[in-house]
Amino acid sequence: MWTAQLLFSCLLLLLLFVFILLLSGRTRSKREPPLDKGRIPWLGHALEFGKDAAKFLTRMKEKHGDIFTVRVAGRYVTVLLDPHSYDDVLHNSTSLDFSRYAQVLMERIFHLRLPQYNPAAERAAMHKHFHGESLARLNATMYRNLRGLLESDTLPDPTRWKQDGLFNFSYGLLFRAGYLTLFGARHNNKNGPTDIYNAFRTFDGLLTKMARTTLKPEEKREAESVRKRLWSLLSPARPGEGAAPSAWLQGYLKHLEEDGADRDTCTRALLLQLWATQGNVGPAAFWLLGFLLTNPEAMKAVKKEFSDIPVAADVPENLILEKLQCTPVFDSTLSETLRLTAAPFVTREVLTGTTLHMANGQEYDFRQGDRVCLFPFLSPQMDPEIHREPEKFKFDRFLNVDGTEKRDFFKGGRRLKYYTMPWGAGRNACVGRHFAISAIKQFVFLVLSRLDLELCDPESVLPAVNASRYGFGMLQPDGDVLIRYKLRDLL
Ligand code: HEM
Fold first, then answer.
1. Shortest CA distance to 281 belongs to which of 341, 196, 212, 210?
2. What is the pLDDT of residues 220-250, one digit of tens each?
3. Where does substrate bind (predicted)?
C-alpha cells in the first residue's frame, strides 16, 4: 500500500518536472530578439515585472538593448523600446491584435464577456460623440458640473479653510463631475456620485492585482464585494429614473441591447466604461496641480496665462471655454506632467508569425501566440537622449522660445515622430483625449481662479509613485500630500 502511494507520488512529481521542463524549453532562433527566461521555471520574471516594471525593463534594456523577449508567468512578451520603430508595431493590425488582450483584462477585472465584441465599431461610435459639436456640448456640461461641485464642496462655510489630501481632492472632484456628465444623475440621492467614487477607489486600488490575478484570498473577497456594490450602484436606469445619461452612453447601451446583452452584462459594461472614462483623468490632474504647487515658477506662468480669462459668475461659460482653447503654457505643463506620469503598456497579441523591421535596418521575427509590448514611458518619455534631465519637471519643456508648441525632439540624430506618448498612438490611440485635456484644464483653471488652495506644509514634496501601477495608464502616488482650500471672494 505504502509502496504504491510512494510510486504514485514519484510519478506525479516526475510528470510535474517534465511539464515544467516542457514549458521552460523554449530556445531562441537566430532571427528572434534576445530571449531572457529568468531563473524561475514557468514564472520567469513575473515577480520582478509586477513589483516595478519600469525598474525591471530598464535593467533588461541595459542588458539586451532596445528589443528583447522575457518570460512572464508562462507567456513570452517581446518588449520594444525604440520609438523610431514603434510604427512597425502600431500599423501592423493584420498580425498584431489589440482586442484579445483587452478581452482577457475585461474578464479578469470586470467579469465581462460581451455577446459580440467589436472594438472598431465601439471606437467609431465613441469618436462621433467625443469630437466636434458633441464634444463642445460635453465640455460645457463638464464645466457646469465641475463649478457646481467645487462650490458645493466648500459648504457649509465657503470661506473657512477645509483640509484634504490633494489626490483625493483632485480625483474626487473630477470623477464625480465626469460621472455626472457622462452617466447622468440617475440618483435623486445627492450622495450618488460620492458613493460611487468611494467604492470605485477601493476597486481601483485592487485593479492591478485583478489584472495580474495575484489577489490574496481576503483581497479577492473584497474585490468581489466592491464589484457587486458598484454593479448595484450603476445598474442602468429604467425609463423615468433620474436624469438621462449622455448621448454617447445611451447609444452604447442601445447597441449592447441590440447585440443581445442582458441587463447584467450591460451593468458590467457600465463599470468597464466608468473605469475607461474616469480612471485616468483625476490622477493626471493630481500630478499637474502637485507639480504647480511645488514649482513656484511654473505656478506663476500658468496663473499669468489664466489671468486673462474672466471667471465671474455672470460670464457666459462658452466665452470661458473659448478662451481656454488657447493656452500654450498650460498645454506644455500638461504634456510635461504626462511625460513624467503616464505609463501605459501598449500591448498587442501576435496572431500570426510576423517580422519586425527596426528603424536601424535590423529585422526580428515574432512568434505566434506571444505578446508584443511597447513601453513609451522608458523611451521616449524618460530617455535622456531625447529629454535632458528626464526625471526633472520643466513646465516649458514643450514650448519654443517664441511661445509656440515645441515638436522637435531627436534621437540618434533623427527627428522623432513619437517624443511623448501618454495617449498611445495609431488606430487604438485614446478616443477620449480631447475631453480629458479639456476636463483637466477646466479643473485647474477653476481651482486656481475660484479657490485659495495651498500645501498645509509649504515644504512638502510630492509622494513617490506606486511602482506596482506601471503599465496601467496614469501612475498614482504612494500616499498623498495635504492641502487646504477655501472659496475665494469674487470682487
Ligand atoms: C489622462 C487621461 C487619459 C489617458 C492618459 C488615457 C490614455 C489612453 C491610452 C494610452 C490608450 C491606448 C491603449 C492602447 O493602445 O493599448 C487609451 C485608449 C482609450 N481611451 Fe483613454 N486615456 C485618458 C482618458 C480617457 C477618457 C476621458 C476617455 C473617454 C471619455 C478615454 C477613452 C479611451 C478609450 C475608449 C480607449 C480605447 C480605444 C480603442 O479601443 O482603440 N480615455 N487611453
1. 341
2. 999 999 999 999 998 766 666 666 789 999 9
3. 108, 114, 280, 371
